[in-house]
Protein: Peptidase S1 domain-containing protein
Amino acid sequence: MKLFIALAFLVAAAYGSPVAKTTAFNYHENIGIKEATRIKQLEEAIDFDGSRIIGGSLSSLTQTPHLGGLSILLTNRRTSVCGSSLLSNTKAVTAAHCWSDGRNQALQFTVVLGALRLFQGGVRITTNNVVMHPQWNPNTASNDVAVITMNRVDFNNNIQPIALASGNNEYVGTWATAAGYGATSDSQSGIPNNTARRHVNLRVISNAECRRTFSFIASSVICVETQSGRASTCGGDSGGPLDIGSGNSRTLIGITSFGHISGCQRGHPAGFARVTSFRSWITSRL
Structure:
């Protein structure tokens, strides 16, 4: 079975299919496990207040109170990481590939709320109640959405839900904010002297423009342009929010789904699950 999957991946790569170009497929092995190790080592080694998203700003807890970190225990007992967005006292939304990436399966999530550090502090709730979109396809990164159900968490200044976008607005040209705990660069191999949750402002582009890089882009995907080496989501940010607005009036328009397999500092667009396309499916599970 493993040989078949490996051969399928090589054939797909040879023919330039989506699986060869995005970071969603085999996310945990390629990105998440390494990020979990790096973040945990950092937190055990130093006191810090810094970050991960490339070219962004440090996020205070009150700036991104809807952001939930995910410490992920895989069935092979290794640890990976993702992000999520809090929707209610008991529900959060993330990327489906954080639960199952086409090769690796999660056993449980620890949802981390109101914390600067991913492996320390805040409110930490363990759950295995995760429902992926039934049409999630790791080969094309389509329908990359999952709803998390957890024990009740109380809201405070540092823990707040975010509203789901509605309507037909495609948001082209809109500046939106992505947030997460992920890597700060493609080449990051050691432990930086400051790291924590971070946010970055990115401009939404049309799907036609996004298709110049990713030919498979569907209407249910929303893309942002990235600045080569300067501003982007990166490894470990998967499942986290793309939102608009300010303060307590922020609206979730995207769920971090994929970047280009060549890296997050090359200036390629980044893809998100478009919340308006999945609003009905998500709300039916709240």
